[in-house]
């Protein structure tokens, strides 16, 4: 539903039916570490990140190709004991007020719950924490540099507030950063050191794919990603993963 609606969780038996689903992956081994999972791609996102690869999921009001939650529920009931987890991704899942109800239904079937989020809504994330087993959080940049990436002021403060909330709650957490083509080694060093200082244990660095990027003018790398990641201290994290390089 539109983001202008007030956010609240609901136990009404039909609440989950309102979840707007723009895509569904029936089986994946890479979206929840160590678990066989399905992925629910929630429709809608408030940000317009330059490197976004899921442009078809951005429009909150899109109606074409939506998947009924009832169909996903039926699939998950059939896969009990065969799948371990269900990941809610997007878009930005916390845009939608029906997310909590869908998570509760899924958890009641015995699945672990994963969440991929940009951290855009820390106030909406808080009431979901008791339902979530694992979170993949995008930290896109230092807080003061978010607006150039997302197009919205205060987005950096909100993402880093979500990071603090997840760390305080002790949720199993993976932080991901996409390497922007114009970053310098010093910038990535500063960002990674700040995250390590905050206590991030699992950190993922991934290359910026420009072929399907939302911003068609996104430049190529002036410094190759492999050279960039060399400045990140691998001993600062329990697990450091490099993807797509």
What are the defining features of this structure?
245 residues, alpha/beta, TIM Barrel, 7 helices, 8 strands, 20% strand, globular
Silhouette: globular
CATH architecture level-2 label: Alpha-Beta Barrel
- Please trace the helix and strand order, writing H or E for each element: EEHEHEHEHHEHEHE
Give the number of helices: 7
Strand content: 15-25%
Structural class, from helix and strand content? alpha/beta
Strand order of the largest sheet: 1-2-3-4-5-6-7-8
Radius of gyration: 18 Å
Q: What is the residue-mean pLDDT, rounded to a whole number?
A: 92
Q: Which residue ranges are poorly predicted, with pLDDT under 50 across at least 5 consecutive positions?
A: 1-10
Cofactor: [4Fe-4S] cluster
Keywords: 4Fe-4S, Iron, Iron-sulfur, Metal-binding, S-adenosyl-L-methionine
Protein name: Anaerobic ribonucleoside-triphosphate reductase activating protein
InterPro entries: Aldolase_TIM (IPR013785), NrdG2 (IPR012840), Organic_radical-activating (IPR034457), rSAM (IPR007197), rSAM_sf (IPR058240)
Layout of helices and strands, plus pairs?
Blueprint: E1 21-28, E2 37-42, H1 69-78, E3 85-89, H2 99-108, E4 112-117, H3 122-125, E5 134-138, H4 147-150, H5 155-169, E6 172-179, H6 185-198, E7 202-207, H7 225-229, E8 239-243
Parallel strand pairs: 2-3, 3-4, 4-5, 5-6, 6-7, 7-8
Antiparallel strand pairs: 1-2
What does this protein look like?
The structure is a single chain. This protein has a single domain, classed as Alpha-Beta Barrel (TIM Barrel). A hairpin with an 8-residue loop joins strand 1 and strand 2. With 245 residues, the chain is an alpha/beta fold. The N terminus is likely disordered. Helices cover 25% and strands 20% of the residues. It has an eight-stranded mixed beta sheet with strand order 1-2-3-4-5-6-7-8.
């Amino acid at each position: 539903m539109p983001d202008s609606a007030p956010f609240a969780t609901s136990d009404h038996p039909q609440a989950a039916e309102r979840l707007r689903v723009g895509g569904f992956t029936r089986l994946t081994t890479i979206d929840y570490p160590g678990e066989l999972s399905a992925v629910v791609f929630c429709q809608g996102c408030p940000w317009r990140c330059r490197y976004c690869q899921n442009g078809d999921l951005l429009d909150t009001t899109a109606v074409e190709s939506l998947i009924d939650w009832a169909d996903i529920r039926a699939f998950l009931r059939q896969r009990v004991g065969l799948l371990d987890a269900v990941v809610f991704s997007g878009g930005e899942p916390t845009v939608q007020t029906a997310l909590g109800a869908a998570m509760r239904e899924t958890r009641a079937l015995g699945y672990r719950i994963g969440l991929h989020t940009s951290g855009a809504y820390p106030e909406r994330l808080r009431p979901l924490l008791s339902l979530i087993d694992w979170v993949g959080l995008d930290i896109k940049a230092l807080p003061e540099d978010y607006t150039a990436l997302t197009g919205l002021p205060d987005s950096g403060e909100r993402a880093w507030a979500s990071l603090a909330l997840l760390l305080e709650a002790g949720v199993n957490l993976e932080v991901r950063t996409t390497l922007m083509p114009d970053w310098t080694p010093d910038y990535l060093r500063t960002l990674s050191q700040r995250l390590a200082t905050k206590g991030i244990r699992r950190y993922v660095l991934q290359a910026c794919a420009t072929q399907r990027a939302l911003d068609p003018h996104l430049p190529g790398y002036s410094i190759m990603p492999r050279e960039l990641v060399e400045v990140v201290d691998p001993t600062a994290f329990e697990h450091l993963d490099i993807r797509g390089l």
